[in-house]
Structures are given as C-alpha cells and as structure tokens.
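Support case: iron/sulfur cluster complex. Customer-provided input:
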Amino acid sequence: MPLVQRLPTYRHRKYNMKTHAIIPIFIPHKGCPHNCIFCNQKKITAHIAPVTADDVVETIETWLTTLSHVKTVEIAFYGGSFTAIPMEDQTAYLKIAKRYKDAGKVNKIHLSTRPDAINKEILDNLRAYGVDTIELGVQSFDDRVLKLSGRGHDSAIVYKSSKMIQDYGFELGIQLMIGLPGDSMETCIYSAKETVKIGPELARLYPTIVIEDTELFEQYKRGEYKPLSQDEAVERTKEMYKILQKAGINIIRVGLKSSDIINENGDIDGGTFHPAFRQLVEGAIAREKLESQLQAEAGVARRAELTGRAGTARSPFVQEEREKVDFFSNSRNFSNMIGNSGRNKEYFLENYRQYDILYRVDNGLKDGEYAVIIKNGD
Ligand code: SF4
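Agent response - structure generated as follows:
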C-alpha cells in the first residue's frame, strides 16, 4: 500500500454523505520486504509502536461515539499490506472487528493489501472473520511501470488474485496510481481499461506524490524522476475516471488528502497534491461536457469560428450584444460545473466571450449530467 493515514481519521464518503462512514485503522507493515519507490513506510515503522488490540478497540470505540446517526459503518484496515502481515496478527485484528460486526455496531469490514498477498488460506481466514471488501493496491497494469516502481510483482498476479477474491464473493476494490516512473497517458488508459475488464465494485485513483524518505524522492532530487504537473495529473486522472465511471465502477477516492500523508515534517513534494483533487477532475469533466454541448448547440456552422476564437484576445468583431446562455447541473454537481475556485467560469469567460453565461440548477439532471441552452434573441 502506498498510503498511510494518521489516526484517528474519520470521513464521510462523498457519494453517500451522512449515511456511510469509515473507521480507518492504520496497520503499518513492519518489516515489509518490498521496496516500492514511492513508499515511506520503512522509515515510519522504524519509530512507531505496533498497533495493539487495545489500540484497535480504542479507535473503534472513539469513533462509534460519533456515529450513532450513520446508517452504515465500516471498519477499514489501511496502511501496510494487511494480508502480508503474520496470520496470527491478521486474526487478532479481525477478531475484534468481527465482534463489532456481530454485535451490529458496524456493518462491514474492509481492508487493503498487495495483489501478491492473496491465497486460499488467507481468503479462507478473511471469510471466517466476516471481511466484506478487499482492495488491491494494483497501481498499474503496465509491467514496466510496476518494475520501475519496485513493486516486486507483475500484472499477471493482479488478474489471478482479483479472480480469487471475486470467486470467494468478496467485494473487490482496485487502487491505481497516476504518474509513476514510466507511466504515460497510454499506460493510464490501459490500466483503467484492464480494471474495467476485471470488474471491481470499487476503485481509487491516486496521483503520485513525492514524499520525503522515499527512493522516488531521491530520484526526484537527482533529476531522474519528474513529477507530473497538476494539469497533467488532472488530465490523466480525468481520462481514467471517465472509463471507470462509464463501466459503473464506484470511484470512492480521487487524490489524497493532506491527512493521508505521513512524513516527519509533514511536507509534500511534487506538484500533484491538491486538497480538492477530485473536484479538479470532476470539474474538468464538467467543463469538457459543457464545452462540447455548447459547441453542438452553437451549430456546425459556427463551431469552426468558436474554435478559432478560443483563447484569443477579444476580437473587434465580437458582437456587443452577447448571446445569453444557460448552463445547468443539479445542485450536487453545481460546484463541479463552476469548477474549483471558479476555474470553469473563468475558462468560459475567457474563451467564449460572445456568450453571457448564467450557471443554473436543474435538479432533474442526474449526477454528471449537464445541459446547455442558448437563448437566441432572448
Ligand atoms: S508493499 Fe510497497 S507500498 Fe506496501 S508497505 Fe511495502 S514497500 Fe510500502
């Protein structure tokens, strides 16, 4: 797993606000034999105490006091590769989670792990303790990217483990990273398409963050690794998001929050961290949809003219009377339509000066649906 979380961290999932909550329990993978170049767990685990059974109980109890109004609660074991830790440790943690599930205090048990830390014995144990969801830190389906990232496995094991997890009846999640060494728009799209072929219920998309105390950070300092710019990261993630979303995969996370990252100084290096990365991606998708609808509405005859004018200074030939245009989204997607910090509004203001655009709500629209109306002569 590339990501570690400070405890306690509690969040509602955006897609299910106020009805679904996760109690995250960070289980560091002490003594992990792998050397993923983006991971700083070796440094972290060198000086943090192991998580005891009492710690797990305390974390669950603390968060349960705030969750009485929440419909479904999941205990989620994040951090290292849960199923790569010794079996007796897995069982000790799972026993506690199962006790809460059996008592009806939590609804689901969720964990994340490496694709090569799955076998029959492990899955039998997870089933015996009532685990519902297994997320695999796949990162990429491109073998070269996996190799350059020091993952220690190839993509073949991902297909095998995913099938085993699905055959056992667990809910499957797949985590993908964007911008690892050797990664490109093509490998990102390939990874998203291969994910769709496997058909997990859940997915997470994480742009690569360069964290101190990692091999990636050393490569970055030596000039061997160049982090993606924010625009590149958004562009690649957007294309992956569209592929996964079209296939009906629930994308439960896009990008990291600052609380997801632990390092000694709390610093984040590289250009891909943004606290509202998901909104950058969803806003970019909204802009793309609005722009193509606007151009379609404007008509084939005018499309060439609009394209030619995009991004240029105001033409002296732009009519003084600007045409009135309404953009619509439902209220949930309104901020995506406007774009983070109003960036979509700015874009249309700058590039479509012939229009006077009003941003409006139509709750008849579904999530991710937008409508454009040009009010000729109104
Ligand atoms: S498997 Fe890789 S990402 Fe996970 S803890 Fe080990 S080194 Fe870090």
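The radius of gyration is 23 Å.

Case will auto-close in a few days if no follow-up is received.
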